[in-house]
Structures are given as structure tokens and as C-alpha cells.
Design brief:
Shape of chain B: globular
Strand content of chain A: over 45%
Order of helices and strands of chain A: EEEEEEEEEEE
Number of helices of chain B: 0
Low-confidence stretches of chain A: none
Mean pLDDT of chain A: 93
Distance between the termini of chain A: 31 Å
Number of helices of chain A: 0
Radius of gyration of chain A: 13 Å
Number of strands of chain B: 11
Strand content of chain B: over 45%
Structural class of chain A: mainly beta
Number of strands of chain A: 11
Oligomer: heterodimer
Shape of chain A: globular
């Protein structure tokens, strides 16, 4: 158990809908990262927050947004969902802002039908 | 554009032998590198890291080698054990920026 909690574990939704994925980092960790893993793909970095502020942005679509709250949990919002958004979404947390290993949650498997 | 490549999707090794997993990157500015291990239905777990000021880092049975001129890193597992069977991801990045992950190599250690 990494100490990072992601909910829900599975999500099935229709195209055009909006969903929110939630991540609770390890106790004491200030950084939260979001990654997307599509079939046979590596982990694609989406976005990083550190202590409530956005720190780095990857190939995150405009339809996607995220935030980190004062209690350090984070939410990833995915809207106008398309079939191609079906993937595993991982959250990871770390104490430091950069150059550090991160601890991953078990992921949320999103299926868009 | 894949900045980190793991060209071997799978690898099988006999128990007790050495496993060598390879990773290539394209950006010469990358200065921090990590390996993660992933079991099915679990998130990736950090294994070992190396910064660009070193060319080798060792942790028990796991050693990572970095060849900056070739933009290549490798993970050696000696001796390999059946419990090492998993997907291994390498990741690379530049200080202050995101990490780029490879597509993973599935290691099977045969008892």
C-alpha cells in the first residue's frame, strides 16, 4: 500500500459526459501528479501540483482540468468525454517538488462508451 | 514524440540469472532518471533512481547504469527472482520539469 488513495477504482460513462477523479496523497506529501496510461502506452504526464499551486503541465487536453485543495487532495476533471479518453488514470504524490520518486495510487480505470 | 523509449516490450529470464532492462532517451538535458516496477492491478512502485552526476547506483539486487554519451540507461537485477516478474518502466526528466515515461518492459522470471 503506497498510501495514495484514488477513487473511484472503476468508472464507466458515456461520451460527452463529465467525470471527476479524486486523489488523496500520502500523509505529508505536498506534490501531486496526474498521469494517463492508455492501452500499450507509457505513462503520459498530465499535470503536477505542489502545495496547492500548479507546477508543471504536460500534454493535458483543454477538456481536462485539475486542482489541488488546501487539504492537499486533488481532483482531475474530465469533460466532453470521448472514446479515446478511456484509460487508466494514475495519481502520484511526493514530498518534494522535483527530482524525486513519487508514490502511485492504484489508478482509476475510466471506460467511455 | 517519445522522449523515453523501452524497445523491448518483454523479456524472459531464468531464476538466478541476470535481468537487464534497457531504456533510451533523446533529450540530453535530462538529468534525473528513475525505474518503477508495476504489478497487475497496482500502481507503479519506485525502484531506484540515478542523477546525471553518477553513472551507477546500486540498491541490493538492483543496479542502474547511466551512459550519458549514449543517452542510455539500464537496470540490472541480480539474481533474478520469480517475484521480480512485473512490468518495468523507466522515466527521465530535467530538473524542474516533468518526467517522461517509457512504454514499459514486461519481465518474466522463470522458476
Amino acid at each position: 500500500d503506497s498510501g495514495v488513495t484514488q477513487t473511484p477504482k472503476h468508472l464507466i460513462t458515456a461520451t460527452g459526459q463529465r467525470v471527476t477523479l479524486r486523489c488523496s496523497p500520502r500523509s505529508g506529501d505536498l506534490s501531486v501528479y496526474w498521469y494517463q496510461q492508455s492501452l500499450d502506452q507509457g505513462l503520459q504526464f498530465l499535470i503536477q501540483y505542489y502545495n496547492g499551486e500548479e507546477r508543471a503541465k504536460g500534454n493535458i487536453l483543454e477538456r481536462f482540468s485539475a486542482q489541488q485543495f488546501p487539504d492537499l487532495h486533488s481532483e482531475l476533471n474530465l469533460s466532453s468525454l470521448e472514446l479515446g479518453d478511456s484509460a487508466l488514470y494514475f495519481c502520484a504524490s511526493a514530498f518534494r517538488e522535483m527530482n524525486t520518486e513519487a508514490f502511485f495510487g492504484q489508478g482509476t480505470r475510466l471506460t467511455v462508451v | 514524440d517519445q522522449q523515453v523509449k523501452q524497445n523491448s516490450p518483454s523479456l524472459s529470464v531464468q531464476e538466478g540469472r541476470i535481468s537487464i532492462l534497457n531504456c533510451d532517451y533523446t533529450n540530453s538535458m535530462f538529468d534525473y532518471f528513475l525505474w518503477y516496477k508495476k504489478y497487475p492491478a497496482e500502481g507503479p512502485t519506485f525502484l531506484i533512481s540515478i542523477s546525471s552526476i553518477k553513472d551507477k547506483n546500486e540498491d541490493g539486487r538492483f543496479t542502474v547504469f547511466l551512459n550519458k554519451s549514449a543517452k542510455h540507461l539500464s537496470l540490472h537485477i541480480v539474481p533474478s527472482q520469480p517475484g521480480d516478474s512485473a512490468v518495468y518502466f523507466c522515466a527521465a526528466g530535467r530538473t524542474g520539469n516533468q518526467f517522461y515515461f517509457g512504454t514499459g518492459t514486461s519481465l518474466t522470471v522463470i522458476p
